[in-house]
Amino acid sequence: MAFDPALETYIAESRELLEEMEHGLLNLEQEEDKIESLNAIFRAAHTVKGSAGMFGLDQIVAFTHGVESLLDQLREGQMDVDGDMIEVLLECRDHIVDLIDQVESEDTMESDALDKHGALLTEKLKLLGATTQQDGVKAESVQGGYPQPSESVIERMQSSDQAETDNWHISLRFGVNSFRDGMDPLSFVRYLTQLGQIISIHTLSDAIPEVEEMDAESCYLGFEINFRSDADKEAIDNVFEFIRDDSLIRILPPYSVLEDYLKHIQDLPEEDLRIGEILVLSGSLTQSELDKALKLQSDMKEKHIDRPLGDIVVENSMTSRAVLDAAVDKQTQIRDKKSGENKSVRVDADKLDHLINLIGELVIAGAGSSLNALESGDSTLVESISTLTRLVEEVRDSALRLRMVQIGTTFNRFQRVVRDVSKELNKEIELEISGAETELDKTVIEKIGDPLMHLVRNAIDHGIESAENRIQCGKPPVGRVLLNAYHDSGSIVIEVSDDGAGLDSQRILSKAIEKGLISSDQALDEHEIYNLIFEPGFSTTDQVTNLSGRGVGMDVVKKNITALRGQVDVESKPGKGTVFSVRMPLTLAIIDGFQVGVDKSSFVVPLEMVIECIELNLPATADSSGRDYIDLRGEVLPFIRLRDLFEIEGRSPRRENIVVVQYAGQKAGLVVDSLMGEFQTVIKPLGKIFSHIRCVGGSTILGNGEVALILDVPGLVEQVSSNEFHKEITVV
Amino acid sequence: MLKVKKSEGLCHAVVEGEMTIYTAAELKQVMSELVDEALEVEIDLSRVSEIDTSGVQLLMMIKKYRKKSEKELRITGQSLQVKEALSILGLDVYFNDSELIPVGTGDNHGV
């Protein structure tokens, strides 16, 4: 079976809905506006079920039905929500996720296990009082919870001008583009049979145009369906949720007044008489009822009565005003939601990657052209090329912005982790999130998830103390874990902090000595000691829990983050808590670079990190031979010479320049021969064999085709400020 | 795809494979010729592997316009998929009741 693009959309949308559901369930636990959350959860489950039905994913429909009915009872206030129930509902949500994963992977291997799990959960739901699919469609409407005014049904039956049928009548005229949009009327009709019984169906070919004009990919068909079901109007209406915009859908409830049938007949594109005949044929109206309705029509025409349908409906006790208002409200909501959806477009990530790659090439080609233009000395050419360059820059920026995603969704995922883990450890922990709207590259977000997860687990497991300990220390019993994100000079900083016991520097130190990571006579400051926990082979937990301490240590976190050109740092105050901060570059593909030269080699420094460029004062350096510091307006600025660092031969020119860079609040100077200016840099990663080289972050191709190395400023700054490095330099 | 064989006053067409939105445009090209075919037309659908509404619509198109010019269209065989689709859409009768030559119940089970 070919993988249906519509199904793909369904899977993606369901995942989003299930995420919303999880979010809602967690909110429910915190008792924030229960009704609102319940409604959101219910909507999510309902939509997942409804659309699953359209694709014939019976397993999902059957399972979700139970969940939905329980939710509905909760929503109706027939039951109170408690912790156990949320627990089960969360499990059920996970199960639906599994089911959807299975649909995506088309993997039937594990279906047995899934079935069993599903059956188990369904049992649990039953215990909680949910009705399940086996209880039949009837249950749906009873538990369906929608207004089902049985008294008014009786009342209506007594009134004279009503059709006698107790079936629904549904008229469908599918939109011309239905086939192209992947909406197959067959599936809708098929799905309808799950809600009730189709007594009769007429497929109308009236709208099929002449053979020459007919487009085989357009839909011209109409359907008149006489339908017996105990489901309520909303449930039936929801079947057609996906086609409502483009198609004509008319649903007449049982015992509708003749006027409605009339209106219905008039609404449809075919001739009134033809529709009338079909209504009679399908059993929705009797011949005498039709005659009566048509007479009504001519009467109304004579009297020139022109009233909105809504009025007629209410007047004829069809629906109470409140129900009508609710329906109108719902329609507005759906419309609002639709217009919100239209603002975003789902794009395949591969396509985006391809675009970014192309733009990368464009940037390189552009740099080449502008170089050639400069050399040609043709001023008009130079001017037009510079306009072009500016545009390329803008295109690059907006293309990169396409990939920017808010980090909020990633953060929200941790709500569940915190909840589950703290339960397991019997600790009470709150997760606070700030800076959720901070944006960063999608690839970075994807890759940062695992290391962050580890940091969060670590904070819960090792950071936060048990409630008793906390009370003893005079802290509130509920621990806090804070996730925070913000932008800082071209990078994003993500902080994972806790208000726990903080790191024990003495214990870290003794452990590090014991493991042979440092020698006992090494003098380290607090900050350096804390950062020892990122060393391979380091783990202070004496007690191995099944959370952290599974052999995946902080060193892996650091390695993963460094692989993304990021940095991780830890700060801690004993008794107050620990803060892990992860710094990541905003994007992985293209940066604004500042090009500098040493002898014949070129280097690129990420522009965001350059603060200023100054001329290196010659006498001053001569005086401070061996001591690589200069006085920058009263500030001590350590610097290194790129010529020394990369062992480039040749004499320094008479006038050297110093580029002042800053990273994570630390400044350093890089001494170079010449400054060549700004340059858009497409980062080409270095091969694996160079991965151990520090101070170089990647390479790029210059306009003239030469290769330039991109300096790893964080690495350099670290080197400049580390003692060992200075020793080496003085030896050289 | 569609194979058409004409002999002894009968135009016999066999559809093989999918009758879905993916093949609809192509099928329509060939099938529209059946509409004006002067001979009696019968279509064998017993080898249709998959059919969706667009396929059904094509059949309805032929039926509609042949009926209009009072010509015959018979469906001689239906695969399970076709049978299911036609019965869901309530069209089993539509394709079977012919004003010119009534088709016996045995005929729609294919050759």
Provide an overview of this structure:
The complex is a heterodimer of chains A (732) and B (111). Chain A contains 26 helices and 21 strands. The longest helix of chain A is centred in the middle third of the chain and has 28 residues. Chain A has 732 residues and is an alpha+beta fold. In chain A, helix 3 packs parallel to helix 5. By secondary structure, chain B is an alpha/beta fold. Chain B is built from 4 helices and 4 strands, in the order ββαβαβαα. The chains are: A alpha+beta (732), B alpha/beta (111). Chains A and B meet through helix 8 and strand 2 of A and helix 1 and helix 2 of B.
Number of strands of chain B: 4
Poorly predicted runs of 5 or more residues of chain B: 97-111
* Spatial strand sequence of the major β-sheet of chain B: 1-2-3-4
Proportion in β-strands of chain B: 25-35%
State the end-to-end CA separation of chain B.
18 Å
Order of helix and strand elements from N to C terminus of chain B: EEHEHEHH
Number of helical elements of chain B: 4
Question: What is the CA-based Rg of chain A, rounded?
Answer: 35 Å
Silhouette of chain B: globular
How many strand segments of chain A? 21
Judged by helices, strands and strand pairing, the structural class of chain A is alpha+beta
What's the pLDDT, averaged over the residues of chain A?
A: 75
| SS-based class of chain B | alpha/beta
Task: Give average pLDDT of chain B, whole number.
Answer: 79
Largest sheet of chain A: 5 strands, mixed
* Most strands sheet of chain B: 4 strands, mixed
Strand order of the largest sheet of chain A: 6-8-9-11-10
- Rough shape of chain A? flat
**What quaternary form is this?**
heterodimer
- Taking the alpha carbons of the first and last residues of chain A, their distance comes to 68 Å
Portion in strands of chain A:
15-25%
